[in-house]
C-alpha cells in the first residue's frame, strides 16, 4: 500500500456508524460528485468496507488506492477513472 498521508481528496464521505452496505452505497453516490482523476475519501468503521470498496472499484473501473487506519475508523481512498 502506498503512502496515503499526502493524498488530497476532492470530496469526503463520512459513513462512520453505517454498517455494510451503507459505506459502499455512499461511495457509489459520492464518486459521481468528483471529477475524473480526483480522489474520493470515505470514512468507515465497518471492517467489511475494506473488501467491499476494493471489489467495487475494481469491478467498475476506478482505482482503489487503499486505506489508512485512523482513531477507531478507516480512511479509504478511491480515484475516479471514468
UniProtKB/TrEMBL annotation:
Origin species: Desulfomarina profundi
InterPro entries found in the cross-reference section: TusA-like (IPR001455)
Domain spans labelled UPF0033: 12-79
Family per record: Belongs to the sulfur carrier protein TusA family.
Record-given protein name: UPF0033 domain-containing protein
Highest taxon of source: Bacteria
Amino acid at each position: 500500500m502506498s503512502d496515503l498521508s499526502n493524498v488530497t481528496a476532492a470530496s469526503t464521505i463520512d459513513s462512520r456508524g453505517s454498517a455494510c452496505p451503507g459505506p459502499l452505497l455512499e461511495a457509489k453516490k459520492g464518486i459521481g460528485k468528483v471529477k475524473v482523476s480526483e480522489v474520493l475519501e470515505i470514512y468507515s468503521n465497518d471492517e467489511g468496507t475494506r473488501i467491499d470498496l476494493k471489489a467495487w472499484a475494481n469491478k467498475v473501473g476506478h482505482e482503489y488506492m487503499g486505506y489508512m487506519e485512523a482513531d477507531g475508523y478507516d480512511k479509504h481512498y478511491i480515484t475516479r477513472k471514468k
